[in-house]
Amino acid sequence: MPSLPDMMTPDAAALAKAAGKGEAIPLAAGTPEHDLFTGLLRLGDNALILGHRVSEWCGHAPVLEEDIALANVALDLIGQTQLWLGLAGTVQGRRRSADDLAFLRDAWDFRNLLLVERPNRDFGHTLMRQFLFDAWHQPVLKALEESTDPRIAEIAAKAGKEVAYHLERSADLVIRLGNGTEESHARMQDALERLWPYTGEAFIGDEIDARLAEAGLMPRPEALRPDWEATVRAVLDEATLHAPQDDFAQTGGRQGRHTEDLGHLLSTMQWLQRAYPGAAW
After folding, report:
1. Which of 21, 84, 160, 267 could form a disulfide with 43 if both were Cys (CB 3.0 to 4.6 A apart)?
2. 12-275 domain in CATH 1.20.1260.10?
3. Model confidence pLDDT, tens digit, residues 67-113
4. What's the mean pLDDT in 22-38?
């Protein structure tokens, strides 16, 4: 009887080859294709990693209604992942599907914000993370609807309808818990203070962002901050929560430098494909 493939294989390129996809030869840095591929990875990876984080609540939420609601949010985000990473695979031109990009990359190849990989901790922490992300996600998608690439504009328009609900829901719950009991208020304030240093990364652009914006493909990250701040300040004021004054920003996720939390998340999310390369239902 043949032995099973090595579950500890660290080389994603080797896994891709074992799965019949061939090695993923990287695009040349600085080319329009590389810029667009990276921009799409950033969008898709945000949705994928946050979708997985939220899915961890399935069967564990405090009440049944919230269990179902969180599962639906996670499904929305995973659906958006399929579209963004599917387009990224097309742009790369290496016969890689959304599944290949999700399950056959190592942590340093992911381009998500550090915010979305933060652990769930408790229910209030999860909701605060979701709200801070939703308040950014909505103006991003609205700007992407004006992209010069009709494929991007179409995905953004579809995703925007879902994210409008996500923001409405997360904002409402932040307000209700902030104005709830002494315990719920304290937990929401603690979550805000813990997560705040991870929000600034979303508004720090690099050369890739500049070239994508110049081509009219994606917005400059810096341009999104006023809308985000207006939404966040309004909700926090109503929730009687106080945003930290420190403007220090943890960065690196969009360039592939992550916290150890992403590695632990990927070990769960990718274990089946790494144990059985090319497995299919």
Report:
1. 84
2. yes
3. 999 999 999 999 999 999 999 999 999 889 999 999 999 999 999 99
4. 83
SS3 readout for 197-216:
HHCHHHHCCCHHHHHHHHCC
Sign of the dihedral through C-alpha 168, 144, 229, 249: positive
Distance CA(186)–CA(124), nearest Å, equals 10
Q: Please state at what angle helix 207-214 crosses helix 32-55, rounded to 10 degrees.
A: 110
Give the residue carrying structure tokens 């996720």: 253
88 touches 40 (CB < 8 A): yes
Say if residues 13 and 7 touch (Cβ distance below 8 Å): no
**Is 249 exposed, middle or buried (CB count within 10 Å of its CB: 0-12, 13-18, 19+)?**
middle
Note whether 214 and 266 are within 8 A (CB). no
Single-letter amino acid code for the residue at 193? E
